[in-house]
Amino acid sequence: MFTGIVEATGEVRAVEDTADGRRLRIGSPFEELSHGQSISVSGACLTVEEFEPGEWFSVFLAEETIDRTFFDEIAEGDELNLERAMPADGRFDGHIVQGHVDATATVEEIERVGEDWRFTFSLPADIERYVVEKGSITVDGISLTVADRREDSFSVAIIPTTYDVTTLSEKSPGDAAHLEVDVVAKYVERMV
């Protein structure tokens, strides 16, 4: 489980496509990694296969991951948001994030508002029922609050710190983004 508080960004150093699937090697400042460890990579929970502490780690992308993410278009040099799994005795600063990408959206608009920004994203029809104004949503692994909800889009307010320490500063209209809706909303729907 993750909190959606991005710890660092990492540059894609290698993309390897084989008959078995796709592997990524991602630059990382994390000194404490282990084989089999879960790590959120722009919102997708992936498993560390190999690593060099403080330098890089590699992950394998299953077909399900490729189908639900923009990782089929990822290239060397791209930056990705990174968060290690939350320790049981750690602070819980964001919201419950599983690292299960529900949909891929598109950045529709970016507007500077004083010192912060307002990002508007498309809202895929199959997840729109889970997105509510002032509710939680994860965008590229970042825990955010929905500021405005329209029929086929939503907006979030981005403070300078979030803009500076995540890949949002690299986004432009038309770019893809991973979305994970609040898991609590899914459970409530299932129970009623």
Output mean pLDDT.
94
Molecular shape: globular
Kindly report how far apart the N and C termini lie: 25 Å
CATH topology term of the largest domain: Elongation Factor Tu (Ef-tu), domain 3
Radius of gyration: 16 Å
Structural class: mainly beta
CATH class of the largest domain: Mainly Beta
Structural overview:
This protein has helices at residues 63-68, 160-165, 183-191, and strands spanning 8-18, 21-27, 38-41, 44-52, 56-61, 79-84, 103-113, 116-122, 136-139, 142-149, 153-158, 176-181. The protein has three helices and twelve strands. With 192 residues, it is mostly beta strands. It is 11% helix and 44% strand. 33% of the residues are buried.
